[in-house]
Design brief:
Blueprint (H helix, E strand, L loop, with lengths): L7 E5 L21 E4 L6 E10 L5 E10 L4 E5 L7 H10 L5 E4 H4 L11 E7 L8 H12 L3 E6 L2 H7 L3 H9 L31 E8 L4 E8 L2
Parallel strand pairs: 5-6, 5-7, 7-8
Antiparallel strand pairs: 1-2, 3-4, 9-10
């Protein structure tokens, strides 16, 4: 067994399984692989490579990942039993990062548990009625006040706290989440065309033009190339 991780060493990297017949299962419990991990290792997934050899020149290789160290990221599953958290977990795993997962609807509020982490990912999914309760807001506020970093993901948080919430909900949304609520609806797609004329109806020359799109809550400027 080998690994390229600089903070992991393997003391017993080679073990013998003896004779193993076709479709038989063997164990190395009496002669285990022994790994040592530096106390400075952060929580992450580590790749281990297993080189296999047997009689008659047989050889093969396999690899797998294990979790090592203590994660500094806690993932709060607050999506009412849905599986939205798996999207985040999957992306983090691709970067070899693992999280300590906490399901609010099973374990309740994490309270003192948050003291062990400096980063929090909070997922509310498509919850529209209780995305962030007052108790949850208080917990988040304390975490942020203590210097914690937070990623919040949810489809209807703005609607729930602004349109369907109270004054305290609105203050939390603006003061702690630093968010601005725009709208809960998506307008139909609109198409705008320009005939290449100015405000006097005269053709303009070819070149690069700046155009600006405006709506009640949105403004955006972009470049356009006009060919003549």
């Amino acid at each position: 067994m080998t690994t390229s991780h600089p903070l992991i060493s393997i003391q017993n990297a080679t073990v013998e399984f003896g004779n193993v017949g076709h479709r038989e299962v063997a164990s190395n419990e009496s002669d285990p692989f022994v790994l040592s991990l530096s106390e400075n290792a952060v929580g992450e997934f580590v790749s281990l490579v297993l080189d296999i050899s047997a009689a008659n020149g047989y050889s093969a290789a396999d690899s797998f990942y294990i979790e090592v160290g203590k994660s500094h990221i806690i993932l709060i599953d607050d999506d009412n039993g849905e599986n939205y958290e798996q999207i985040i977990i999957s992306y983090l795993k691709q970067s070899l990062i693992y999280t300590f997962n906490w399901d609010i609807h099973v374990d309740g509020l994490p309270a003192d548990t948050l003291n062990d982490f400096d980063t929090m990912i909070w997922i509310t999914g498509d919850d529209r009625e209780s995305s962030l309760t007052s108790d949850e807001q208080a917990l988040i506020s304390t975490f942020i006040n203590n210097g914690g970093k937070m990623l919040l993901s949810g489809q209807n948080i703005g609607y729930d706290l602004i349109e369907d919430g109270n004054e305290n909900d609105s203050l939390f949304y603006s003061d702690y989440l630093k968010a601005e609520y725009i709208t809960d609806t998506v307008e139909p797609t609109m198409q705008v065309s320009w005939d290449g004329r100015d405000q006097n109806g005269k053709d303009v020359s070819g070149g690069i033009y700046i155009y600006q799109l405006k709506s009640e809550f949105y403004t955006n400027s972009k470049k356009m190339l006009l060919l003549r």
